[in-house]
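Blackboard transcription, Thursday session:
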Amino acid sequence: MRRTRKKKLTVELMDSLIEELEGVQGLLPSSYYSVGDADGDGDDDTVEAGKIESEEVEVALAAAVSSIGKRCDLPIDPESLAQLLEMLFSSDDDLVSIAVNLEDAINGYFGELFGENLDLADTYFSDLIAILKERREKWKKPPKG
Amino acid sequence: MEKASERLRRVLTKRAKSLPAEIQRRLLLAGQIVVFGSFASSLETASSDLDVFCVGDCRTHFKSSTIEILILPEYDLYSELWLGSELANHISSYGIPLDSRPEWFDHAKVGAAAAVRKERRINTYIQSLEKHWPELSSEAKSRYAIKIRRELQRLQLLQSGKPVPPTVLLDRDTELIEQLDVGNSSLFKRFRDLFAEAPRAGAASGG
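(Written on the board underneath:)
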């Protein structure tokens, strides 16, 4: 009975994490989107998508981390997504290193120097979400036997 | 007494052992190594990471909890963007070269664009914080209060054409903290209004 409840809570936590991360990822525009052959020159044309500043993504991610932290009633308020995942899983979990890279892509030195690398952040978001979904499916599976 | 550069080289050698093989290789091939940040000012704490800048074949950025490495190719060093940037001017003013002083240090000068970028950055932070305010934990609000206060200090320095010191020195600069509104009163007012409920970490705090 206790095991079933733990399983249910874990799946619910995974759901929330995925939902929050997808929410923040949804802020990231892909750099360009296709509009077909708008000018009639025979080539497909692309238009620059709406711009978003990396600071906005950073704050939205901080809000998502706060929201999950409150929900889990963690003893320490996590300062970053990487720290949250470290607290929920373990420090050597793949999710943690992806989160470090994600946060660096959003707010790293190169961003301020050479333009933000939000395309890279988009990839890291997708990686994190894919791993979390995979784990959620494992938790959802009924026990063997 | 051990020279600062020798001490820093020793710390770098020790911390570099934990780097991934490819980053170790790039660091080994790199030149003009400069340590900057809290270690360069001997103000590091047990949890400080070692900030390292060097010149290599390709742009590289690696970050872990113990070390952060930035490698730029030679051709980036003499661009207006780099020489006028906050980071280049911080490194050239407060960094400690492990070998001879890099030549580009003499060409670094804070550019007007660095202050414009900083002002835009603070504006976006404040706008985003206003939007997400109810969702943030009180600890997160306090952290952002410190972050924005430091960014306002950096903005003031950049607007005066001065390089930005390591963060630990910014936190100790009470004179600058008390004059945060000078020249940026509307930005400061928005900051003060937003963080009115988190005074401990706000403008009046040393962080």
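Lecturer's comment: Strands of chain A lie at 32-36, 45-48.
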